[in-house]
């Protein structure tokens, strides 16, 4: 297919001998920026996970990457709400102790894994077929999901720990998808203008319109 691969994710490599023999040497490789992140049976669907991490609710979508078709979706309450209905209360809770910040992160990841498991069961997709995930949310939700410091975000001038887009191995966050898959997080604009706004601007193609809103 003319796709070059220059590296092999170690978790995917550990599965390679077993996968080759199970599939009688007929497999497909998922390659991301030159890195093999998963080895799958041939044929098999390649699927992505899209998540809008809202303060109150979480929306998750399972998307077939070849066609762009949405295979399944879930809307769930954000379990962090038990520790505060607004982002300020949650940041205050998270910064009191490292364990509390870890707790806030784990709550969201567990909820996403449960939603993913349900969607995979509904569609007959294996979690290892999910080779990419994209997560967006406001800046506070972004930081809590990554267990980033939030102290500086909770006080003026409300500076994010990071503003650039990030690519992080899903396993580092506890997300149970393909062994070498990444989670892509869109950039934050400011302290209270996050990646969810960036996603909306990209989806609606506002930057490409010729009309001006006054």
Average pLDDT, rounded to a whole number, is 89
Total DSSP E strands: 9
What is the alpha-carbon Rg in Å?
Answer: 19 Å
Q: What is the global morphology?
A: globular
Major sheet attributes = 6 strands, mixed
Structural class: alpha/beta
Strand order of the largest sheet: 6-5-4-7-9-8
Order of helices and strands: EHEEEEEHHEHEHEH
C-alpha termini separation: 48 Å
DSSP strand (E) fraction? Answer: 25-35%
Q: What is the overall number of helices?
A: 6
Q: How much helical structure, as a percent, in the residues?
A: 25-40%
Low-confidence stretches: none
Tags for this entry?
single chain; 214 residues; alpha/beta; six-stranded mixed beta sheet; three-stranded mixed beta sheet; 32% helix; 25% strand
Helices and strands, with pairings:
Elements: E1 7-8, H1 10-22, E2 27-32, E3 35-41, E4 47-53, E5 57-64, E6 70-77, H2 87-94, H3 98-123, E7 130-137, H4 139-146, E8 166-169, H5 170-173, E9 182-185, H6 195-204
Parallel strand pairs: 1-3, 4-7, 7-9
Antiparallel strand pairs: 2-3, 4-5, 5-6, 8-9
């Amino acid at each position: 297919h003319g796709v070059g691969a220059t590296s092999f994710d170690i978790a995917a490599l550990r599965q390679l001998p077993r996968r080759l023999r199970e599939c009688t040497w007929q497999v497909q490789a998922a390659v991301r920026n030159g890195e093999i992140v998963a080895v799958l049976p041939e044929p098999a669907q390649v699927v992505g996970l899209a998540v809008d991490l809202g303060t109150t609710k979480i929306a998750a979508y399972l998307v077939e990457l070849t066609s762009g078709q949405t295979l399944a979706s879930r809307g769930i309450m954000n379990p962090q709400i038990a520790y505060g209905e607004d982002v300020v209360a949650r940041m205050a809770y998270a910064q009191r102790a490292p364990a509390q910040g870890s707790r806030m992160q784990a709550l969201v990841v567990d909820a996403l894994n449960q939603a993913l498991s349900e969607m995979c069961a509904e569609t007959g997709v294996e979690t290892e077929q999910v080779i990419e995930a994209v997560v967006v949310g406001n800046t506070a939700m972004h930081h809590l999901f990554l267990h980033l410091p939030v102290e500086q975000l909770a006080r003026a001038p409300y500076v994010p720990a990071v503003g650039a887009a990030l690519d992080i191995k899903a396993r580092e966050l506890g997300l149970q998808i393909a062994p070498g898959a990444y989670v892509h997080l869109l950039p934050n604009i400011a302290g209270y203008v996050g990646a969810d706004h960036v996603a909306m601007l990209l989806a609606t193609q506002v930057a490409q319109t010729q009309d001006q809103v006054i």
